[in-house]
Design goal:
This protein has 111 residues and is mainly β. The chain is built from 1 helix and 7 strands; from the N terminus they run E-E-E-E-E-E-E-H. The chain has a single domain, classed as Beta Barrel (Thrombin, subunit H). Strands 2-1-5-6-7-4-3 form a 7-stranded antiparallel beta sheet, covered by helices on one side. The radius of gyration is 13 Å and the shape is globular.
């Protein structure tokens, strides 16, 4: 994944939910970028690298929900400006991978 600004990204109709063992975030679409192998998002709280997380995405096109597990590979920032978190998905089914690639190619993603 590569770093990109989060301003001006097309929006989802539903928020994106990110969960770790002791944290649950409901993120607005302007804070999430979808890639075919993961997501990047802005967070008010930091996450440790290699933390396992669950992400729930809902496609605005067909309303289908996609639940993915992943691992944080990068978290940079500070408590004053927020944190840029990169998460790579693990163990995706073929159907989930196809749906994620479709979302990444649409105007929702950047990859």
């Amino acid at each position: 994944m590569c770093a990109r600004k989060f301003d001006g990204i097309s929006s989802f109709e539903q928020p994106v939910t990110v969960e770790a063992p002791q944290t649950r975030l409901e993120l607005s679409a302007d804070k999430v970028v979808i890639h075919k192998s993961g997501v990047e998002f802005r967070s008010p709280t930091p996450f440790n690298p290699w933390s396992e997380m669950t992400v729930s995405l809902q496609s605005p096109g067909d309303g289908g929900k996609l639940n993915c597990s992943g691992v944080v590979i990068s978290c940079q920032g500070n408590k004053h400006t927020g944190f840029n978190v990169s998460l790579i998905f693990t163990s995706l089914s073929r159907q989930a991978q196809a749906r994620l690639e479709s979302m990444a190619r649409s105007d929702l993603g950047v990859s």
